[in-house]
Amino acid sequence: MTKDQQTEVEAAAFRALVAHLRQRSDVQNIGLMNLAGFCRNCLSKWYSAAAKKFDSDFNYADGQQYVYGMSIDEWKRDHQTKASDAQLQRFEETKPHHAKISGY
Questions:
Q1: Whole domain around residue 70: which residue ranges?
Q2: Domains in the chain: how many in total?
Q3: Mean pLDDT of 60-89
């Protein structure tokens, strides 16, 4: 596989992940963080940091718009639920395993 082909494959996999997360609006970010150590916000930050290399005006809100498929305010209004005490406790316990957001 050439470097260009690898980049295309990686881009396709990333787009599939974003599409899947948009379809699974029932899955809360805290659940993703507690299970996998990253969430839609992490993905938005990674995307924003990479996009800034090409467009200095690109910001986190732009990244969230891309990942969520809507503004974060719309997402919170339509899909976000209040985290339970157990989820918040698990979040604190798993913090050492949460994604590190470099370049952001």
A1: 3-97
A2: 1
A3: 97
